[in-house]
TrEMBL record:
Family annotation (PANTHER family): CYTOCHROME P450 2D6-LIKE, CYTOCHROME P450 508A4-RELATED
Name of the gene: Cyp2b19-003
Protein source organism: Phallusia mammillata
Name under which the protein is recorded: Cytochrome P450 2C42-like
Family note: Belongs to the cytochrome P450 family.
Subcellular location as annotated: Endoplasmic reticulum membrane; Microsome membrane
Length: 456
């Protein structure tokens, strides 16, 4: 459980031991599981700094090397603060330069739609979800390629396929990292330096390939950099490295930060869209309501992010997909940066903190029918999107998701465009698609087929 806790096991343990419980397994690190909205807030918001550290596990070392530079796995401190600040300021700068955030996604929309249409013609209307999710992977990866490298790729481009393969392979292999071999390297100090289980070696190979790819992009950016006119995330980073305005940026740090953006921002978005397709096929009445809103507000024009204000039912449906699917069941693990107390219990420094997202996203205390797909969960009496404090799929506090604005725009624009052009239906003879998930780092729907019907 040290690397990849299954939420079912955690839910069972929490029903026995309460909202806060600790586990000790392999090594000496104490694993503290936190359940429920109040405790999540107490840890992530009220005591954000105390719990803003990341655990230093063998898996991190295998994946990221000894130094853990970059963003997602780095420790909380001036370096991380500088990375997060730069990320936000790049988003702002790209907005000011007119190459605004939504444009990153909007540029991708025509390619996304074309690819879905070609899928329909090649599979006579019935698509396997694996095929559709590949389109989601292309699209979400391209948005980030545009943000970091300054250009999108053709979906057929060989270079793009290499980027895609290595990026997504890391996630699927990580979900398999529960072998006895991993327990061995977790228990025996430094064993990982001499021997690793096969899956871990495969992950390392993918990480190396991805890093080589990013390194070549960085080299290209260095040779074409105009200090007065940065184009994308890499350029802004290189500017910082060149001017030495912050001692926190090194070329290795830039490479790792770009890796983090790809790793954190592609699987999450594409998996959410996969669940959206499943819920639409299972809830034709809801899908029809969304399509009515799309017809009224958009007609045939492609959406912009501003359109969401006039489309509360669509926006509420996307939030409901995120709530019900709860794709990141334990987010990214945290650690206690200092010894402290929670609910009167001692939490030793270095304890690994496992936040159970599903415990508040599926809590009957906060949602009327937590296990039913119901966009009304997010609508007030006037049919407008209301605030729901327990809706925190992107985390909260000092380590909250850095890509939240990109992700929200991607989900709205890809989802809306998809339903503007297609209706998802159950295959003949199937009454309902299985809404159970495959356990892993992110929760994936089980493989399914849907009928993809063109609307126009
Ligand atoms: C539906 C899409 C997404 C979901 C549900 C999601 C969710 C999360 C969650 C739960 C965390 C952990 C927060 C914590 O540790 O407390 C996280 C971290 C992070 N996310 Fe996202 N994310 C999404 C998309 C993105 C995108 C598109 C990007 C990139 C542009 C991104 C970049 C990051 C980064 C860099 C971190 C690490 C932040 C840190 O360690 O300080 N995410 N995300």
């Amino acid at each position: 459980m040290a690397n990849n806790p299954d939420i079912q096991d955690l839910a069972t343990l929490s029903s026995q031991y309460g909202n806060l419980f600790g586990i000790k397994r392999g090594g000496s690190t104490y694993i503290v599981c936190i359940k429920g909205y109040d405790l999540f807030r107490e840890v992530m918001l009220d005591n954000s700094k105390t719990f803003a550290a990341r655990p230093s596990t063998v898996v991190q070392k295998i994946l990221r090397g000894e130094t853990c530079e970059g963003i997602a796995t780095s420790q909380y401190g001036p370096g991380l603060i500088a990375h997060r600040k730069l990320f936000h300021s790049v988003l702002r700068s790209m907005g000011i330069n007119g190459k605004d955030l939504a444009k990153l996604v909007v540029e991708e929309l025509p390619y996304f739609v074309d690819e879905l249409h070609s899928l329909v013609s090649s599979c006579s209307g019935m698509a396997k979800i694996d095929d559709i999710s590949e389109v989601f992977q292309y699209a979400s990866l391209n948005v980030l390629a545009y943000f970091t490298f300054g250009n999108r790729y053709s979906y057929k481009d060989g270079k793009f396929k290499i980027l895609l393969k290595n990026n997504f392979q890391i996630f699927s292999l990580m979900s398999k990292l529960t072998s006895p071999g991993l327990i061995l390297v977790s228990i025996i100090p430094n064993l990982y330096k001499f021997w690793l289980p096969k899956t871990a070696r495969e992950i390392q190979a993918c990480v190396r390939n991805l890093e080589t790819f990013i390194a070549s992009e960085i080299e290209y950016h260095k040779s074409t950099l105009d200090l007065n006119s940065p184009r994308d995330l890499i350029d802004y980073y290189l500017l910082e490295v060149a001017t030495q305005s912050s001692k926190h940026f090194t070329e290795t740090g830039v490479r790792k930060a770009v890796m983090d953006v790809f790793q954190a921002g592609t699987e999450t978005t594409s998996t959410t869209l996969k669940w959206a397709v499943l819920y639409m096929a299972n809830n034709p009445d809801i899908q029809e309501k969304i399509q009515c809103e799309i017809n009224e507000v958009l007609g045939n024009k492609l959406p912009t992010y501003e359109d969401r204000i006039k489309m509360p039912y669509t926006e509420a449906s996307i939030m409901e997909v995120q709530r019900k699917a709860s794709i990141a069941p334990v987010g990214v693990l945290h650690a206690a940066g200092e010894s402290t107390k929670l609910m009167g219990y001692d939490i030793p420094k270095g304890s690994l903190i496992v936040p159970m997202y599903t415990s508040f996203l599926h809590s009957p205390e906060h949602w009327k029918n937590p296990f039913q797909f119901d966009p009304k969960n997010f609508l007030d009496a006037n049919g407008q999107v209301g605030t729901r404090p327990a809706f925190m799929p992107f985390g909260a506090g000092l380590r909250a998701c850095l890509g939240i604005n990109i992700a929200k725009q991607e989900l709205f624009l890809f989802f809306t465009t998809m339903l503007q052009h297609f209706t998802f239906q159950l295959p003949p003879g199937i009454l309902k698609l299985d809404e159970d998930y495959i356990p892993g780092l992110t929760l994936q729907p089980k493989s399914f087929q849907v009928v993809l019907k063109q609307r126009h």
